[in-house]
Write a structure and sequence with these properties.
- Belongs to the TSC-22/Dip/Bun family.
- Pfam families: TSC22.
- InterPro entries: TSC22/Bun, TSC22/BUN_CS, TSC22_domain_protein_2.
- It comes from Stegastes partitus.
- This protein has 129 residues and is an all-alpha fold.
- It is 68% helix and 0% strand.
- It has 4 helices and no strands.
- The chain starts with 13 loop residues before the first helix and ends in a 15-residue tail after the last helix.
Length: 129
């Protein structure tokens, strides 16, 4: 489609009308560029927050894995068998995180410290709009 000028009743003098349209187009373009730059900034900021949260979760996971290994090494085979059977039963009746064995439920920073690692404090789930 080719651009056609509006009917003559909508036209002003060509100079004023053309300058007015160009000025409006420039303002629209500037506004769109401003919106784009604000959105890009917000997205970059959110990406940085998410990267930091991922890093903290990896660190927390490592601490918990080491703690779990220590607890397993300290538990005897009867305790491990009992835990395994409880986990099997609970997975068929409810989500596994709702029922925890006392051996696993205790978050023991002393054990993590004993292993030469730092205990990472629990981080709240933070979401931003």
């Amino acid at each position: 489609l080719l651009w056609q000028p509006p009917p003559s009743s909508y036209c002003f003098e060509m100079d004023a009308s053309g300058a007015s349209v160009v000025a409006i187009d420039n303002k629209i373009e500037q506004a769109m560029d401003l919106v784009k730059s604000h959105l890009m900034y917000a997205v970059r900021e959110e990406v940085e927050v998410l990267k930091e949260q991922i890093k903290e979760l990896y660190e927390r996971n490592s601490v918990l894995e080491r703690e779990n290994a220590v607890l397993k090494s300290l538990a005897n085979s009867d305790q491990l068998n009992q835990l395994s059977s409880q986990l099997t039963q609970s997975s068929s009746t409810s989500p596994p995180l709702q029922q925890q064995h006392p051996l696993v439920a205790n978050n023991t920073p002393a054990l993590a410290h004993h292993e030469g690692s730092q205990s990472v404090p629990h981080q709240p789930n933070i979401t931003s709009a």
